[in-house]
Amino acid sequence: MKKAFTLIEIIIVISILLILLSIGVFSSAMVEDFKIREDVKLIHRDLKNARNLAISKKDNSKVKFNNENSYTIICGDISENREYSEKIKIKFKRKDGNIETTRTVEFTKRGVSAYGSSGTIELSTPKKIYEITIEPVTGKVNLKDEKGIYSY
Question: 99 is in which domain, residue-wise?
Fold first, then answer.
């Protein structure tokens, strides 16, 4: 009697291996999507925190966006640098229709957006486009995607 694998056994083993490999591919893509979403939320949260920091410290605060996928939060003697995913592309839409790639968003000590700091920040990701809107009079920071407003 010969000791060998049958065709069905080989097919079953190959199919199990393919299933295990595909799980790894899908999970790495899901992890990347999760990180991008978290980075978008972090940018939104940091803009809101910069506004609150300006109010609590009674000093102007700034969020300066750089070209190297990073931004700096500055208020008085506090300075904190943050990085975000290179898959997020940021554009600043001004009221006159012009688009910028670098910009500083500033809040006054009353939490109001400083002159020229209001407008829309577009965050483009591979799957979605998010918009962070900074209201001109109140300084309120909103995040929304194609479906509507995420945060108030």
Answer: 7-151
